[in-house]
Amino acid sequence: MEGGGPVTGTMSETMTQASGDVAQMNMIQAINSALDVMMGRDPDVVVMGEDVGYFGGVFRATAGLQQKYGKNRVFDTPITECGIIGVAVGMGAYGLRPVPEIQFADYIYPALDQLVSEAARLRYRSAGEFISPMTVRSPFGGGIFGGQTHSQSPEGIFTHVSGVKTVIPSTPYDAKGLLIAAIEDNDPVIFFEPKRIYNGPFDGHYDTPARSWAGHEAAQVPKGYYRVPLGEARVARAGGALTVLCYGTMVHVVENTVAEMGVDAEILDLRTLVPLDIEAIERSVKKTGRCLIVHEATRTSGFGAELSAQVQERCFYHLEAPIERVTGFDTPYPHSLEWAYFPGPVRIREAINKIMKD
Amino acid sequence: MSDRIDSDAGRQEAGRNLPPLRLHVPEPKFRPGDTADFSDFDIPPAGAQARPDEVAQPGEMRDLAYGLVRVLDEAGVAVGPWDPKLPAETLLRMLRAMALTRAFDARMFRAQRQGKTSFYMKSTGEEAVSIGAAAALASDDMCFPSYRQQGILIARGWPIVDMMNQIYSNKGDRLKGRQLPIMYSAREAGFFSISGNLTTQYPQAVGWAMASAARGDTRIAATWCGEGSTAEGDFHSACTFASVYRAPVIMNVVNNQWAISSFSGFAGAEATTFAARAIGYGIAGLRVDGNDALAVYAATRWAADRARANAGPTLIEHFTYRVEGHSTSDDPSAYRSADEASHWPLGDPIARLKKHCIALGIWDEERHAAMDKELAEMVHDAAREAEKNGILGHGLHHPMESMFEDVFEEMPWHLKEQQQKMLEEWKAAGL
């Protein structure tokens, strides 16, 4: 971030870091590839979690890894998230680099004490004697008719915790590069994978046929090693009329809504929530003077509240309209009313119209 | 009629004539003012417990989870199959480490009362649990302690001035004043950072042991928690993981009867033993006289040999008594009988080991008195040395900006910004 120019949305710039052949991948394949690359490069990397071993994960993210790297490095675990993360802390203290999977972000709560009080604070409380270099992968977010226990977006719980980084990709290319950077990071990283877009980008129109990643520029993924650095936002669309701050699935919903409206919005895909790319945000909002924040998580004390405060503190005199938030409602994630809850095109359009009116 | 099949389908017709349900809330036997009487304790004689082979199947040794492994008898003689037959030198080293731990505790407790630090926790009466175990483990086995195992650091020869610097949170504190006193971390001593959140160290120890096994290492892990915190989910997660992967780990439950003011009944002691928790997990369980340093040594050595033979984990319950309050913030006279400690039927661990050494003819009262005096002077001198680095609240702490270090490996912009702002605010205030 320091001294860097604008991080542009085109992949071609970051692609220059990449090596080897490129293949068409969906997000699951990209994540699988990242794990494969890192397990091949670093014998300390171990993958663990419910159903991740022989079966290869309920979403297939770890398919083939046990066969390739053996049971000592890829193994199924008992169904205790507290145990999974606690064991990963101990393995990290030994010197390994665990990549535990929590099968759904909705199941992460039994592991909170081990994440919040242990992994996140171990470096601090031991003044660096012990570290917890784990990357916790977990599918999150809704839009799959998962009901209240397979749809949540708990990122705000983790951004509130000191000592843990929170990363959310929105494309196969970023998913692989960010996951590699997360695994290489010596601090604990929560890596939330937007499962609605595992198999294809989602434009927010739930009643139209699902699209695959085929043909999408960001689905052209190098087979080898590359990093997308943590803490750097991506300009998903350059524009001058307003700035939209979003991440994960919502990047695609916003992109499509903006295109439908014909608004010259600048869309920032934050990619990392902590540490946040504040320079990219400040630069964009000061340029456009208007700011919309979109996330799927519940509204009150959501990460959007932090974004809104940061923008207000840094860009107040550049703002030409109040900051707007489009978020999930402060209710549990409903099943039948999923599309009323989901911050889709209707609500985003309303918010943009309101911001642009002032 | 509907198709319901529950047993009270005819209730309305027949009326209901059942006794009212009762909630059982455990109550300890003795409260303040009561005379403690432990005569109904079932304490098997020393030497009575069989000693299975280290690689025995857990199902073949279930009795051990309900018995009590004891080596030292009333006369101070080591008897039975668990007698570790330690050389005189080891016995005297253990005795010294236990006495040093007690002297250290006395000094640091007083320091807290003198206002030199915020908090302290003594391990009085439980010294054998830490020191017997430390003596039986290899020096590079990894310990994941709870907050009352200072004896491990002392037994491993860790400098007591360093421990005191941590207690005083002074500028000599390697942990930069970030942790509550006694929450040590000593990587070089194989001593994991103490949390304060209970039993979180249990799955961590299992994870460390699993890593060691996955790597084909020879080192094992050991962990400790109190009987009260066996109720935590972490304990059960750890037991499941340890069982599933046959992790080379020793899981110690220090049953000192009291979790602050809650007696062991609130963790299930009225119904069964803590060692018996092992049975449901299919792992080896041993129940040990925790005030018998030789029994603790023998059980730990058995479990360590078992782990090193890839025969799996062991859960050891150390049956002991917390002689002092939970911490300097606690007053046990408010909730338990004052004479429990003096009536405790398993005696004092230091007095028992001392008696054994004297009975062996390798020790005497004069040498013991001289050692106690020497150790008291040693901790006194160490405390003075540590106090040169400052005591809590008297300004000799790590610099303010250090608060922001070690949150992450590299300080991100938002912490740098907060750090800068804090320093500017203090400067502007003329401080």
State the end-to-end distance of chain B: 82 Å
Proportion of residues in extended strands of chain B = 5-15%
Structural class based on helices, strands and sheet pairing of chain A: alpha/beta
Number of β-strand runs of chain A: 14
The geometry of chain A reads as globular
In quaternary terms, these chains amount to: heterodimer
| Fraction in helix of chain A | 25-40%
Note the main sheet of chain B.
5 strands, parallel
| E-strand count of chain B | 7
Order of helices and strands of chain B: HHHEHHHEHEEEHEHEHHHH
- How are the strands of the largest sheet of chain B arranged? 1-2-3-7-6
Instruction: Report the helical percentage of chain B.
Output: 25-40%
Number of H/I helices of chain A: 13
The largest beta-sheet of chain A arranges its strands as 9-11-10-13-14
What do the pLDDT scores of chain A average to?
94
| Class based on secondary structure composition and strand pairing of chain B | alpha/beta
β-strand amount of chain A: 15-25%
Largest chain interface and its two residue counts? A-B, 48 and 45 residues
> What Rg of chain B do the Cα atoms give?
24 Å
Structural account:
The complex is a heterodimer of chains A (358) and B (431). By secondary structure, chain A is α/β, with parallel strands linked by helices. Chain A is 34% helix and 18% strand. In chain A, β10 (242-246), α9 (249-261) and β11 form a beta-alpha-beta unit. In chain A, α2 (27-41) packs parallel to α8, α4 (81-94) packs parallel to α5 (112-119) and α10 packs across α11. Chain B is globular and about 75 Å long. The model of chain B has no long low-confidence stretch (mean pLDDT 96). At the A-B interface, α4, α5 and α6 of A face α6 and α7 of B.
List keywords for this structure.
heterodimer, A: 358 residues, alpha/beta, five-stranded mixed β-sheet, four-stranded mixed β-sheet, 13 helices, 14 strands, 34% helix, globular, B: 431 residues, five-stranded parallel β-sheet, two-stranded antiparallel ribbon, 7 strands, 7% strand
